[in-house]
Design a protein that fits this description.
Structural class: mainly alpha
Number of strands: 0
Largest sheet: none
Distance between the termini: 26 Å
CATH superfamily of the largest domain: MFS general substrate transporter like domains
Helix content: over 70%
Radius of gyration: 21 Å
CATH class of the largest domain: Mainly Alpha
CATH architecture of the largest domain: Up-down Bundle
Number of domains: 2
Low-confidence stretches: none
Mean pLDDT: 86
Number of helices: 12
Shape: elongated
Order of helices and strands: HHHHHHHHHHHH
Length: 244
């Protein structure tokens, strides 16, 4: 966009090799220019998918687990010192399984990791709901919460952002990403602010709801989300152009 083609060619050559670099650079130049296109030029589906990726990332309840972790553990009967220890364990799990996502996202692909993560989150949340229903709060609840957070951090946590950056065509990426992120924060606010009210009504139904959202997120990814592994941004744009 700033007419520094020689520098661009040098960078693309380092990444893809000198033989393929010229072809790739030409493809990029054909899809990236200063002109903008209407938001739905490539169809409404790509925008809807971007929004739903963001919404499901929040509706599975991750920020409830993060924001209200002390309250959750104290409600299980843990003292403040024990509660802080459990939160520390959760933080360690988050870091470890985020690294798992980094190491596996280009080997396994985006969709398989998201689906596996959704299944793990569903198991975790339905497990917590079952423990709440039977009043069997204890170490089992902590284990289910760890399963839930580990599943999120190896999948929806980082990979949602990867997909949002990859699925949108170049000429509308800026606006489309802005819309998706705005939807994410709106969903974050809705889920986080309704948690205390939902818990007062029924803790079992609250955690069951997040489990249900995890199941629906798996179905959504399976049916609608495009696998972007191994595809250039230009190839992804061509796919949307064909389906528009």
């Amino acid at each position: 966009m700033t007419n520094q083609d020689d520098k661009a060619l040098d960078i693309v050559s380092k990444i893809n090799g000198s033989q393929a670099a010229k072809t790739i650079l030409e493809e990029i130049k054909q899809t990236v220019d200063t002109s903008s296109e209407k938001l739905f030029t490539y169809g409404k589906l790509v925008i809807v998918i971007g929004i739903l990726l963001s919404v499901f990332q929040q509706f599975v309840g991750i920020n409830v687990a993060l924001y209200y972790a002390p309250r959750i553990f104290e409600s299980m009967g843990a003292g403040k010192d024990v509660s802080m220890l459990q939160i520390t364990v959760m933080g360690l799990v988050n870091v470890i399984f985020t690294v798992v996502a980094i190491l596996s996202v280009d080997k396994w692909g985006r969709k398989p990791l998201l689906i596996i993560g959704s299944i793990g989150m569903a198991i975790g949340m339905f497990g917590v709901a079952g423990m709440a229903y039977s009043d069997a709060i204890g170490i089992g609840t902590l284990i289910f919460i760890i399963i839930y957070t580990a599943s999120f951090m190896m999948s929806w946590g980082p990979i949602c952002w990867v997909l949002i950056s990859e699925i949108f065509p170049n000429k509308l990426r800026g606006r489309a990403v802005a819309i998706a992120v705005a939807a994410q924060w709106a969903a974050n606010y809705l889920i986080s602010s309704t948690y205390p009210v939902m818990m007062e009504y029924s803790s079992t139904l609250t955690y069951g709801f997040y489990g249900l959202m995890s199941v629906l997120s798996a179905i959504f990814v399976w049916k609608l989300v495009l696998e972007t592994k191994g595809k250039t941004l230009e190839e992804i744009e061509a796919i949307w152009k064909r389906t528009a």
